[in-house]
Amino acid sequence: MADDYLVRIGKLIRDARQHRGWTQTQLAEALGTSQSAVNRIERGNQNISLEMIARIGEALDSEIVSLGYAGPMHLRVVGGRRLSGAIDVKTSKNACVALLCASLLNSGRTTLRRVARIEEVYRILEVLGSIGVRTRWLNDDGDLEIVPPAELDLDAMDMAAARRTRSVIMFLGPLLHRVERFRIPYAGGCDLGTRTVQPHMTALRHFGLEVAATDGMYHAQVDRAAPGHPIVLTERGDTVTENALLAAARHNGVTVIRNASSNYMVQDLCFFLEQLGVKVEGIGTTTLTVHGVAHIDRDVDYAPSEDPVEAMSLLAAAVVTESELTIRRVPVEFLEIELAVLDEMGLDTERTGEYPADNGRTRLIDLTVRPSKLRAPIDKIHPMPFPGLNIDNVPFFAAIAATAQGSALIHDWVYDNRAIYLTDLNRLGADVKLLDPHRLLVEGPTRWRAAEMMCPPALRPAVVVLLAMMAAEGTSVLRNVYVINRGYEDLAERLNSVGAQIEIFRDI
Ligand SMILES: CC(=O)N[C@H]1[C@@H](OP(=O)(O)OP(=O)(O)OC[C@H]2O[C@@H](n3ccc(=O)[nH]c3=O)[C@H](O)[C@@H]2O)O[C@H](CO)[C@@H](O)[C@@H]1O
Ligand SMILES: C=C(OP(=O)(O)O)C(=O)O
């Protein structure tokens, strides 16, 4: 954990230095130290005293950390700038959190490559750390080592961290093989309205898990059992499929899971389970047959694949800013419907041939997006479980439709409370009408205008607002962007690297 804090403090120092417009050498001179020491500090590779933090704060005229309270992060966006060049897609939040939970299946050392450094991952690392799992960043590339203890200290669980993420629900599957009683807090995450956990309970009951929900906690009790017949999931959800897989992985026998999600994070989890020695048949389909093993004790090394939702976000950034941008490492299989719809809307794109991701399985391409005259899609935009249009990609179509000629209907049937946040685009000049809690009518094209606003409390709508700000001439401010940092690593800096002008600031 100490390493984690050093990295975060290092990033704050780097942000403050860049904001001041200083080089590392200039900061080093002001501190009477070397450029290489500043470099190490900014990368989180050097222990740093409180006195040094105070001196850096003084030199940069910016309080780097305020003890006991880290002020929220905000973005100041100078919009109307074209993007250009190329940008890489990072690994996915959703696979990384599933794999972190899956590491609890293994008594050996798990190494995950190029893990996204995002708040959602940090929360799960905090929870893992609190129950005795040793985690360590190996380098600046995001390679992460996870070593579990012989016994987990579940009573010591960091409930505050656990409560901030929904992903902690995926502790249920692995933990039911390790202990007979435990508790985890109600699942958190984005404020998207009610999100059921019932399908998880129904699926895991086959393994003997009973859960009572009281006082904000799930109290789990395990009387281990073998699923006598195929488990039919009541929803084709991603995390519920993962939970069933995690439980099946250490059930010494064959488990059949029907109505399984075959989405990208589920596939990454299946590939990882195979490395743990668990055979999974039917990967990429809705019936998974898992040949579990009672004990897993292996040193494994796995590289999760790139995030299709981040790829979609970057693509949308290029569209709304009318830019030519190359997005590298796009997991194309998980973006096919989106690309087909955009093709129909008139988007000019060019794709390279396919090449494998580091997991050796997922197919990637580089995608160049060019400025295009878009027309609204004839049919409604609506998500479906994979291989449909990705549920998390729907909000990006609101921003894209706002740049197109004509009116587009967006039907976000999945979440009770997400479509409404997209009406925030109206404050930036869009014409978005909420027809009912799930349907939006977007009239384009839009002449975007700058605005100052709070970040919507939902990841994808928040990024959509940021993209619209990038398109709007003038200076916009987006306040309290924790929710964006939950799912995107260094988004502002990375967009700046292709021509955006986004400044990070905090009130301390
Ligand atoms: C950590 C992680 O991986 N999170 C993803 C995962 O969350 P997760 O798998 O937790 O998603 P939920 O279980 O909350 O499902 C999302 C919503 O879809 C509804 N639903 C889902 C499937 C279905 O067949 N019928 C149905 O109605 C659910 O009731 C819920 O309202 O999947 C969501 C949907 O892809 C994504 O937005 C999240 O980014
Ligand atoms: C809704 C999302 O994630 P989570 O399941 O982490 O809330 C998302 O990634 O858009």
Structure description:
- This protein has 508 residues and is α+β, with helices and mostly antiparallel strands.
- 32% of the residues lie in helices and 22% in strands.
- The chain has helices at 2-20, 24-31, 35-42, 50-60, 93-102, 119-130, 159-163, 172-175, 198-204, 238-249, 264-275, 308-320, 336-344, 394-403, 459-471, 482-485, 491-496; strands at residues 73-79, 86-88, 110-112, 134-137, 144-147, 181-185, 209-214, 217-222, 231-232, 254-258, 279-281, 287-291, 300-302, 325-331, 348-351, 355-356, 363-370, 406-411, 431-436, 439-444, 452-454, 474-479, 501-506.
- A hairpin with a 2-residue loop joins strand 7 and strand 8 (217-222).
- The longest helix is centred in the first third of the chain and has 19 residues, at 2-20.
- The model has no long low-confidence stretch (mean pLDDT 94).
- The protein binds uridine-diphosphate-N-acetylglucosamine (UD1) and phosphoenolpyruvate.
- Phosphoenolpyruvate binds at residues 120, 166, 189-190, 192, 392, 459-460, 487.
- This is UDP-N-acetylglucosamine 1-carboxyvinyltransferase.
- Its EC number is 2.5.1.7.
- Keywords: Cell cycle, Cell division, Cell shape, Cell wall biogenesis/degradation, Cytoplasm, Peptidoglycan synthesis, Transferase.
- It comes from Streptomyces pathocidini.
